[in-house]
Amino acid sequence: MANLNWEGIYPAVLTPFDKHDDIDFSMFEKNTEAQIDAGVHGIILAGSLGEASALTSNEKFLLLEKAIEIVRGRVPIILNLTENTTKDAVEFAQRAEKIGANGLMVLPPMRYKADDREVVAYFKAIAQSTSLPILVYNNPVDYATYISLDMLEELLQEPTIQAVKESTRDLANVTRLKNRFGDRLKVLGGVDTICLESLMVGADGLVAGLVDAFPNETMALYNLVKAGEYSKAVELYRWFMPLLELDIHPKLIQYIKLAATYEGICTPYTRAPRLPLIGEEKVRIEKIIGDAIAVRPHLTALNYATN
């Protein structure tokens, strides 16, 4: 079984497309290098922000192959698993391991809202089919399934299930998880607008969204918390918040791709049914991004960066 410490910043990376609706692998490489240069601890492919719902399985595996070529072992590569049936999920996990993924982020069954017993059985079947470390994605707001502490207790019987992406939007759940499981379960905050609070109450790291556009600022925030520089972290966080709020909207992909395009590390294109921003919405989101960039902190000059 591969080993991951599940600590630090894990971008849920974007999947750039070109104007012909094909994956733009040169821009994917550019964004990936920007993440690694900033010091991230791993990358997660084909997550919600990576437009998992718009990618074919073959495209997801092609992304994995390209990421392996680009990353060259510098950070772990996690592939997101979103399948409708247990059989397909098992086959996906095994293929990901064969190609060379370092871990999996696994969502509950898609389309069918399984009950607790079914969800546990689904995760266990995947865990028993592969030696890859698994990050369980707990996001009842967007995916309707709540993975309770009791369910996680059952799941931890499987040694490959090692971490949870905590996206319930209930900050207290980080503490509940730490109180219940201690070091047995790593906790990664999954909601950008409470990322600082999550770290300060004990989350081991973040699966982040705006890091896709602002990797250096995200890493500075994490490093400041780890160094105990809380007042500087709060100051940076307050600058960041208007951007972080782009992560908690149904159009988060359009918004964050636009921000990353402003930074020169993505394209704005999404796959239909997602359409380009227009009118007042486009003006409003561009203003949020432009206003933040205009007053962005100089990390080194202000001693925000601690790495």
Automatic annotation (TrEMBL):
Which UniProt keywords are given for this protein, alphabetically ordered?
Lyase
Asked if the record carries the keyword Plastid, the reply is no
Task: List the Gene3D superfamilies.
Answer: Aldolase class I
User: Sorted alphabetically, which InterPro entries does this protein's record hold?
Assistant: Aldolase_TIM, DapA-like
Which SUPFAM superfamilies does this entry report, sorted A to Z? Aldolase
Similarity field: Belongs to the DapA family.
Q: What is this protein called?
A: Dihydrodipicolinate synthase family protein
| Protein source organism | Sphingobacterium bovistauri
Q: Tell me the classification of the organism that encodes this protein.
A: Bacteria, Pseudomonadati, Bacteroidota, Sphingobacteriia, Sphingobacteriales
